[in-house]
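Translate sequence into structure tokens.
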Amino acid sequence: MRRERNSKIIATLGPSSNTSDKIAQLVEAGADIFRINMSHTSHELLTELHKAIRDVETNLGHPIGILADMQGPKLRVGRLKGGSAELQTGSEFTLDLEDTPGDASRVHIPHEEIFKAAQSGAKLLLDDGRIRLRVSEVKKGKIHTKVVSGGTLSDRKGLNVPDLILPISPLTGKDRADLAAALDIGVDWVALSFVQKPDDLAEARTLIQGRAALLAKIEKPAAVKTLDAIVGEADAVMVARGDLGVEMPLDTVPGIQKQITRAARAAGKPCVVATQMLESMITSPIPTRAEVSDVANAVFEGADAIMLSAESAAGSYPVEAVATMDRIARTAERDPTYRSFIDAQRTDPEPTTADAITAAAHQVAHTLRAAAIVCYTTTGSTAMRASRERPDTPVLVLTPSQDTARRLAIGWGLTCALTEDAHNLDDMVARACRVAFQQRLAAPGNRIVITAGMPFGTPGATNLLRIAMVGSEQRSVQREISTK
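Result follows.
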């Protein structure tokens, strides 16, 4: 199953889409990876969804990625008398550690870490930023604030602390249990929430032990400040625009999105753009014009993947949402200006043999108007290098590892096929030509550019570039296959 686009689509599963039939429809409509939100998923349901996805994968013969998204710490206020209180702009308001119902003058905050990190002048946001406070004084067990923007505060509403770095792990007890369950069944990606600094990824890495790839969600100002270091530590990043839009001024989020996308591409790491991309399609069969532009802009920026959340998880039109996103992406990539945007963001290769070979493959394929670039890879690193080049030639990835093929489902422009390692140079060329023909990427008489590592099967040893021509024998092979 070859997509007619380079950008990948991630669809979140939920009540509207968690059956085998619906998952199959979503894949046919364009979904490449499925996100399972562990905030709303039991371990039993996780197992059921995993099996359903793998069954669809087997039936379609197409690798599908699975992303388990960890909930992370949730900061919330305590209870209020009568369930809510009206905070007046300009009034004084205190956050404390007393576990008693609050009122218009105070509320309990069950997070001691906030009291340790709070400083005078810091902003505190309640209820997704609808209520804004400014810290005026910090005393033992109490944070005195002034209400900058008031409103109605209800029980257990969320609390954001954009100016503070909290001494808190991004993995709660629930997250550790969820992570263990996700790894046990074999998910391909783990998304980590509440990342504040590069060190936050170390704990997750220790627990994952290479069994899945790690995606860092960039959703906090502190993460933006240390973006390059976080990108370097993660296997991929996500522009989590929902939380970014709460903790940072909304008008800065589009620029931050571009900053994250370009930093990820420079490092050769996949970047996912997420949150409210087709929000109106939760209840409507068609998106707004602004949403179409939003999705298209992410594609023009060169995002590896674009993601649907509630649109596919809880909306009334999950399949239509995926099909719409697929159509927008394909149209954007056919636009005459698309290639100029993509090429303008190209970065120089690293001074390594693998990067030099990959960059050369891109140039050779472009010059020869080759039908495809074929990458042999075991770990996926060669394929991600090819993806970073954003070639105007289709990239076919041949790998003996099903885990690698599934993880690469997130990579820009990558079409993956399972095959055993080549035995020698002749076998390498013959296999590449055969699969490129079977995937309808090349026809007899077309040239393809092949990259591989010698000796074969050695991870990270890309050191070979070969130009080959697809022979007429591929057509007879295809006829033989079709008659069986």
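Note: The radius of gyration is 24 Å.
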